[in-house]
């Protein structure tokens, strides 16, 4: 249970860090979409380890293979299975974790829940699971782009206390990919890089905030009351490893305003469309997209696995210490960017199909 | 679509602000639980309008009636339908909203999505919908309490910039209910009351933050990877009207720490149980409860409907202004407390049953 | 669990035979459909007890009330709750069933599963539950009719060994409603009536077969592989009380033919459409509708509750006998007709929306 | 959509006849079950082509590989992905089907629904898809056996008009596997073999009936009202390729009896357990298992693809004829046996977990 996401564009991920591989089955993909392994690979390469010297040095090429659901370059409407084999697994680095629980990691809770766990590389709790999400997200992005020219762009907004200045309304993918930290504020990115370098030397880790915008989202997506668009976005974001907080539009800061300051007043633009002057709503009102840009922020804690020695306990109930070996990200933020984008794309694509399912035939009633 | 929440303890709410009534169907409730309308009413009374002079003066007694699923005072395992009729609806207050869209409300987006809307009192987008959640939450709370002595306590943590001091590990329901603002920090509560009074006089509104703790939660609840416990809590919270942000444990502030500062080191308590010294994880690691207190915070924006005049547009595409009539909360926070508690209870109860479903038989394999 | 049916046009029923009432919540109904209580009532009247002297004499007017989801005569896209109160419940007739289990009824199994049961009138296992299905089915029928001129007509095909002759391709609703047994073969209907009269005098019961046809079903409905259209129809039919068998098209008799005899050869009709000469497929191939008439048959066993004395046991484990009091159908078939139609309509409507969700946007890819 | 089956023990299959392979992801499997590829292979070998001279001669070894979810020989509670590569695909045999629709096959309907199709070997509509079901069913069977000693045995009951005599209460797996037709009535099996031989020579095909029994099923499985145990069994069976009918217990023949003849009277066995003297209910009453043997029958039509020439049409709308090449089963029944068993096991295992989820904690309420 719990490994499936979405109602109509429905993905199921599988796989562990050091098992035979990781992957995803996408059920409900619209037929006749042109899609190739190369297009998916582009997104996976943004997520993969070893892509730069500020992420985990594990050397996985993360080459994806489409097993089913695509015929002569087009989706057939049947399940798309995508698999990425594991190749550079060094299980011996985790021998210590057979017994020792890493603080703030999933070791102890998996044992508590299931009575056993695959300790190699974190097993299922490894961020390697997100490969399936990013692969599926690549397809969701393409659907959204072809149907409605939707653009989804994520970036590092903040690392530790270093806050960048980025305008979500105009930021480009090129600006994001311009540096390895994926912060489009070049000046701030430099400081972030310096900070990460220091953290690597300290055998420590840091966290931060990813911001993600979706532009050109059609009006009308989102299903009140439980499947409000922001609720599904929150679930998607908070299901990512290491995430600790989610906000949309004005978010927590919005609580400091009065209603008259916070409300987004309506006006008619030059073409007569109903628009809002401000966007504290973050593109969603009453759980439904209003056509303005959807802007979310996701807080990621500092990576739990660190080289510094910490107090912990063993599986068999003895106190001990642990200075983790293995290869880990000092800061997950640069690699979290494509993950957040993927969750945004998956939620929007699912709701696009859901809206189509419920509402596209009503014209025949009028 | 979108009106059902939960997998095993599954609720479906229905009803509009001014229609025949609102209610909920609970499917999957364990049989043989003693439950009465009186117990459910206790929670509904904490949510109902008119309960004090700082909430909406609409006079709804919100008396619930159990239609099915309970026989001789006990749940039968079949669907429990609970209905609360609407009595004090003044649809005429909303005549203006037939045409005018309230800024930052759901009027425009419902029209965009469905092509029509029940404009009376906000229709389905009214917070009145949460009656069904709170009623179901009362049952979920009782199950959790009887099975595992779980305690769920929500309270107003912050209103606008007024921050209270509350220790989630020891706060009591009595302290929360001690004042009408539901802030257990009595001194801060006084200031909050004064602020709300001022806001009422200004025909304006304010928002804030609800914090909620669940204590004695069994280890092992939560389903990686998408249905992580915090992901479902986030979805539940962000599906509440007016919520703009969610965080668990250290939340957004946790991004300012390094890994060695943030990690919750393990130790063995006097009875040999594995515990964490700190609780920045907020009671969940790897998506699974670890037995520590679960602590979440939810940001609520200032109420969208205000008496102050604002710029807006009409349904037929003309610019206009609106100073809303109708009866509205100047600050939803006091009434949001039982709503957040309900979502916490619904998520935990659902995951308790889910965990039981997948894992309780594995002892036979050992 | 188990009280919800459908993925996009999703219904949840609730209620017991003698509780506060029975009803349904429909989630996902397309907006802007004109619908009235009167239209729904027409279908409920075909299902209700006491409608003729060959069905149970319980006097329930079964008047439905729409609580939500309809505004000014049109669906709003939000949940439609419909309730029918129970009025003529005579719980005292069931006093004996507090202890005694009716053979082939649900008394013993509900006790085994839940540890208790509402023994009044069969509680949740009463066919009264199907009111919610028939009410929702009325709406599904109207959607199908308005979108695609779909006609759904059920009728009694067989009672005990009395087989009627009916051509599903041309049978009309008028022919079905022409007699109280709902068998459009008037001659056979006479014999059936005589047989039922005899069975009533014998304090016994009989079963039979309902056949149901859906005409003008659009091509392309059904979702391989598990949600094949016939699979969902089978589930719908076999979830009706007293059903013991389901078949589509050639059904069990089709096993007696060879492939060359059984296959439906294709041809082009005068307008160039691809059609099949025969319809042993029953309108579905590979789980997907092919545009031919969908024809299903459902076997209903003789009513379990009979006046004749039978051997049974008590809840507390003693052997005894039971000659059931209470008011029961000597033959459920006439009232089963609208139930089977409802399940057909619910499945087709759900798959219409699902198909729309997945496939209606693909034109933009071409 | 439609490629997932089950609520708690949830499987998703993927793959086409001639693509990269076929497989399944099982989500929700209880942890700590010992399982090996060899155990799964045993069931796959019963399903695989080329196993005898009366089934399709396609030479697929159908070797399964567990990709995830099993660690050191035990399930971990995380998704189990199982893949079987395709090896002996001869796509050239299907060149004719690029244009020509096989009568009573899925070619035309897939085109109608999706606007394209993978014509190689039937693509997704190939019975090869059931590999994933049989693999998952092997695990479900083992769980049921270990938890409750459940035995599931299917067999060929009838081929064309050749009816066998088999007592479901005592039939053994050894008797079933004793001949290649999988009919435990040895005498009848001889006749069936002769008939199949004749049909092969005729380039024709035949169908028949598989009966399947589940013994030692715990009382209390099944979820009224829509997820009645027989409803989910019906859905499972009718989702198998080529199935046209389903019945449980007395089935269609039960309609010929009166209630007093049909009802299963209760008695107390020597140990005081409530039992039924007869089992026309087929082990299920009110949608819930009663502890008696569950007996179902599934009708399979004659294989649609035959070597005999038939009239058909082309994709581009011209009338033509087709004498199918490719390798096909003259009679699917022997290979359908493990498929029906798999669906029985999947449904029972899912409902075992569901029952555990809802009802196993209620003892704490008493």
Describe this structure in words.
Four copies of one chain form a homotetramer. The first copy, chain A, is an alpha+beta fold and 366 residues long. Chain A has a single domain (4-359), classed as Chorismate synthase AroC (Chorismate synthase, AroC fold, 4-Layer Sandwich), CATH 3.60.150. Chain A is 27% helix and 21% strand. Chain A has a five-stranded antiparallel β-sheet with strand order 1-2-3-7-4, covered by helices on one side. The first copy, chain A, has a five-stranded antiparallel β-sheet with strand order 9-8-10-16-11. In chain A, β14 (284-285) and β15 form a beta hairpin. In chain A, α3 (130-148) crosses α8 (333-359). The longest helix of chain A has 27 residues, at 333-359. The two termini of chain A are 42 Å apart. The model of chain A has no long low-confidence stretch (mean pLDDT 96). β11 of chain C pairs antiparallel with β11 of chain D.
The CATH architecture category of chain A equals: 4-Layer Sandwich
Query: Order of strands across the widest beta sheet of chain A?
Result: 1-2-3-7-4
Radius of gyration of chain A: 21 Å
Structure annotation, total helices of chain A = 8
**Most extensive chain interface and residues per partner:** A-B, 117 and 117 residues
CATH topology of chain A: Chorismate synthase, AroC fold
Q: CATH superfamily name of chain A?
A: Chorismate synthase AroC
Percent of residues of chain A in beta strands?
Answer: 15-25%
Number of strands of chain A: 18
pLDDT averaged residue by residue of chain A: 96
């Amino acid at each position: 249970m719990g490994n499936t996401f979405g109602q109509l564009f429905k993905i199921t991920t599988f796989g562990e860090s050091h098992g035979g591989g990781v992957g995803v089955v996408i059920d409900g993909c619209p037929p006749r979409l042109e899609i190739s392994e190369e297009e998916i690979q582009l997104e996976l390469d943004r997520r993969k380890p070893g892509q730069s010297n500020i992420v985990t040095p594990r050397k996985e090429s993360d080459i994806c293979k489409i097993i089913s659901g695509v015929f002569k370059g087009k989706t057939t409407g049947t399940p798309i299975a995508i698999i990425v084999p594991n190749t550079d697994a060094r299980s011996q680095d985790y021998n210590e974790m057979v017994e020792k629980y890493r603080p703030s990691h999933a070791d102890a809770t998996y044992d508590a829940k299931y009575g056993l766990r695959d300790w190699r590389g974190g097993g299922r709790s490894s961020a390697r699971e997100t490969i399936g999400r990013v692969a599926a997200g690549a397809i969701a992005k393409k659907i959204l782009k072809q149907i409605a020219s939707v653009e989804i762009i994520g970036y590092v907004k903040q690392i530790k206390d270093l806050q960048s200045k980025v305008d979500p309304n105009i930021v480009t993918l090129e600006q994001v990919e311009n540096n390895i930290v994926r912060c489009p504020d070049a000046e701030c990115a430099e400081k972030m890089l310096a900070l990460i370098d220091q953290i690597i030397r300290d055998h420590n880790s840091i966290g931060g905030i990813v911001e993600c915008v979706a532009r050109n989202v059609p009006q009308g997506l989102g299903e009140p009351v439980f499947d409000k668009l922001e609720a599904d976005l929150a679930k998607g974001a908070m299901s990512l490893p290491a995430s600790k907080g989610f906000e949309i539009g004005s978010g927590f800061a919005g609580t400091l305003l009065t209603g008259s300051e916070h409300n987004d007043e309506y006006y008619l633009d030059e073409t007569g469309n109903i628009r809002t002057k401000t966007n504290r709503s973050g593109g969603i009102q009453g759980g439904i997209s209003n056509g303005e840009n959807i802007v979310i922020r996701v807080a990621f804690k500092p990576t739990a696995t660190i080289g510094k020695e910490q107090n912990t306990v063993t599986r068999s109930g003895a106190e001990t210490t642990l200075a983790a070996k293995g290869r880990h990200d000092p800061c997950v933020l640069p690699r979290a960017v494509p993950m957040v984008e993927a969750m945004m794309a998956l939620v929007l694509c699912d709701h696009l199909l859901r809206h189509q399912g419920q509402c596209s035939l009503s014209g025949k009633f009028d």
